[in-house]
Amino acid sequence: MPQDVLSNRPLYLQVRDALAERIAKGTWRPGAAIPNESDLAREFGVSPGTTRKALDLIESERLVTRRQGRGTFVNDQASEGLAIRFSNIRGADGERIVGQVEAGEATEGKANALERERLRLQAADHVYRIRRVQSHDGRPFMVEDVSMPATIFPRLVEMNGVNHRIAILAQRHGVLLGKAQERISIGQASPEAAEVLGIAPATAILSLDRVTQTLDGYPVEWRIGQCHLVGQHYLAEMT
Amino acid sequence: MPQDVLSNRPLYLQVRDALAERIAKGTWRPGAAIPNESDLAREFGVSPGTTRKALDLIESERLVTRRQGRGTFVNDQASEGLAIRFSNIRGADGERIVGQVEAGEATEGKANALERERLRLQAADHVYRIRRVQSHDGRPFMVEDVSMPATIFPRLVEMNGVNHRIAILAQRHGVLLGKAQERISIGQASPEAAEVLGIAPATAILSLDRVTQTLDGYPVEWRIGQCHLVGQHYLAEMT
DNA sequence: AAGTGGTCTAGACCACTCA
DNA sequence: GAGTGGTCTAGACCACTTG
After folding, report:
1. Which residue gives the smallest C-alpha to C1' distance to D2?
2. Whether B153 and B203 share a structural domain
3. What tens digit of pLDDT does each residue of B20-35 get?
């Protein structure tokens, strides 16, 4: 049954929300099949057409995959192809460059001005910070400084050896990812980054300033990448 | 009536194609209202639901805008907001930088290797080439070298004073635009570009190598931009 | 053969816009 | 009040996958 028939929110959106919540909370696990359309329609007390509209929506939001004759399956956000969809570095042949990631220790602290702006936080809010280095074929090509709101990822500093890729963290914490925006400009490598990347300080690098948001539009990750491309490029797709 | 009832192509896609063709060909002009759902359903001999699905599609393809209580209107691809949607340079405040464009003479010639690769042309195919300079607040910030397949834009060299913005050319020639991909890297300004941009030769610039496609996926414009950003950035949006 | 999602129908009622 | 698109219903049949 719809959670709130009195609400102005259309039924198909209410159903979408209910389905999305089950996926976020892990009630339906990644890879599992969810009930078929008519069962869902019965459960929510709406018509099959309304259910279908909700399913179309969560499919377009990459929460499920539907296959004719088989069923509807919860996507694993940790899978290749979903987890790396915000990594836009490509090789000369156009193939995605997904570096090996080496992450430092996570630290916690008060959000600074830039973090507050990018993550839409208040002065008292805390963030977790991690430095990551991405390598391809043994060559480090990007140094990333990552900040995440502490409230969304509780006890992150205490976890050891967890993968800090945002898609994986988000899935583990019941957060659904939506869009991301990346500001691209030419910058100079910081002394520490230059050292890691094996280039002269103040070499021109690509500055990749990216904010990743939840499906409802809340920022959950801000990272500045200092990227030294040799034969690779950044690929932006526009629709 | 559906053009081909025997076709395997779903009815709503056949209706979509018919609507898209009328918009491309200019049968329905930019800004004009198109018939309402039930009239279209009658005309094509399908149910209102099928018509609606086709209308939803062309709306998502930016061909029309639907407004409850008013009607469905053909989008003007030459309008601000549609014509500049592939220009991703932003100012410090995040506002789009849409430069004044100064275009040189269009020339015609055989497609070179890179043009054939980017525009998927054969050895004998011809292209039109134009150099454009974009300025903002009187300062030139990007030099663009543009190539377009000659077959798609016949007699382009003979036209004087036409706007060479791809969205406008496309609308004039009955072509519907779809996606674009942009390869971004750090390059060195060519001597001529450096002169125009007022910077030292071999200064690091952002190289913006962009291919724009039609709705059916055919490349229609390739351009390399040499972009000198001062306080601005390139904004990539990922979904 | 049974079960799934994909397509399609033929309506109803509602929210919104505008004359 | 008339006309529009937005939502919703309650089915039918088809294409595809799997046991």
Report:
1. B69
2. yes
3. 999 999 999 999 999 9
Measured from Cα to the C1' atom, the residue closest to C5 is A68
Contacts of B199 in chain A (CB under 8 A): none
Per-residue pLDDT tens over the stretch A179-208: 999 999 999 999 999 999 999 998 999 999
The reply to whether A4 falls in a domain is no
One domain for residues B63 and B96 = no
Task: List residues bridging with B208 in a β-sheet.
Answer: B184, B225
Return the residue matching tokens 């009630």: A27
User: Which of A85, A178, A236 minimises the CB distance to B184?
Assistant: A236
Residue–nucleotide distance: A33 CA to D18 C1' (Å): 15
Q: Report the chain B residue with the minimal C-alpha distance to residue A229.
A: B185
Q: Note the maximum CA span of chain B.
A: 65
Q: What are phi and psi of A189, to 5 degrees?
A: -65, 135
pLDDT digits (tens, 9 = 90+) for A37-84: 999 999 999 999 999 999 999 999 999 999 999 999 999 999 999 999
Nearest to A32 by CA among A45, A44, A19: A19
Q: Which domain holds residue B114?
A: 80-234
Q: Which nucleotides of D are covered by protein (CB under 7 A)?
A: 3-12, 15-18
Q: What's this model's pTM, rounded to 2 decimal places?
A: 0.95
Burial (0-12, 13-18, 19+ Cβ within 10 Å), A224: buried
Q: How many domains does chain B have?
A: 2
A-chain residues within 8 Å CB-CB of B206? 184-186
Q: Do B143 and B43 belong to one domain?
A: no
Per-residue model confidence as pLDDT tens digits over A217-231: 999 999 999 999 999
